[in-house]
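Morning F.,

Quick status update on the modeling queue. The single chain you submitted on Monday has been processed. Sequence for confirmation:
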Amino acid sequence: MPSSVPVRNVFYLLCYAWNRLNEGKLVDVGTIDRNELGDLFARMLMSGVRHLLRRGLERDYLECQAEVAGIRGRVALVDTHRRFLDRHGRTMCTFDELTDDTLANRVLKATMRSLANVESLDHGNRWQLRSLIRRFESVSDVRVGGEQFGRIRLHGNNRPYLFLMSICRLVHDCLLIDETTGRYRVRDFLRDHQAMARLFESFVFNFYRIERPEFDVKSDIIQWDGTSLTDPTLSFLPSMRTDICLRRSERTVVIDAKYYAETLEGWYDAQKVHSAHLYQLVSYIKNLKRRGGSDANAEGMLLYPTVDRSLRLEYTLLGHKVRICTVDLAQDWEKIDSELRALV
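Structure tokens below.
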């Protein structure tokens, strides 16, 4: 796998990938002195929750059923008569009540409780999490399942929850329970090739979208430059979708972000560029040519995390500039920022 990524840099990767840089500024990762993902998640969650508590937890009207004096809302006649409440001037009623016992707050509380039970967690972070949990006394205890995230309503009025729910979902996906002790441990998603490939691609995409505003940054669908009598619509050909396409008036750069264990592949005793990656990239830029404008001379870049050495290879292939580059995710964040900016 690519060289070890410090947890401080994982934080920046996540903030860019989730498009949550502003909320991320609330988190001080400079004080994290342990390279443990659990501590990073705890620090992110605690910073966000403290900010939330200062502005006030989300409140919403939820339907409740309770025994009340008199009438409130809709009377549940069957329950009222069954319990003989009407003889005492009381009724069983269903009504809407403004409460902070919302699903989002339940998920926050449950996630903090789970993180506090992670075996490897720093003792200081464990104590702070438990202190924050006590501030959620009026929020119900629940077990978090993946289906609950789809039921949480996120909108402009509870915008701070967008960042926090992203953290909670990641924590939920990464926590594994020890059946013997009942304690949790954090699955190292940095070793999950597919998860890191998605994170790396999203990070690079949003980095250039945010930090290089002079470019129009998008994932582009490219049409094949071809014809067929047997398949006039070319529907049987595979679709071509770029990871990242940067455009401005006079320049187009197609970037394929690849998170791979080896930047180069072995070919007998020699090291070569991954052939499938290069063929794919060249196919993209050649089929873009029909659009004209800056696309007619589109550039291509294969971008990998640094594994064992930095690469800056440049070629002209079929009339197009093609580069194979790496970015070292293990270095200080300021250098990663500078390196990515310099590539385009």
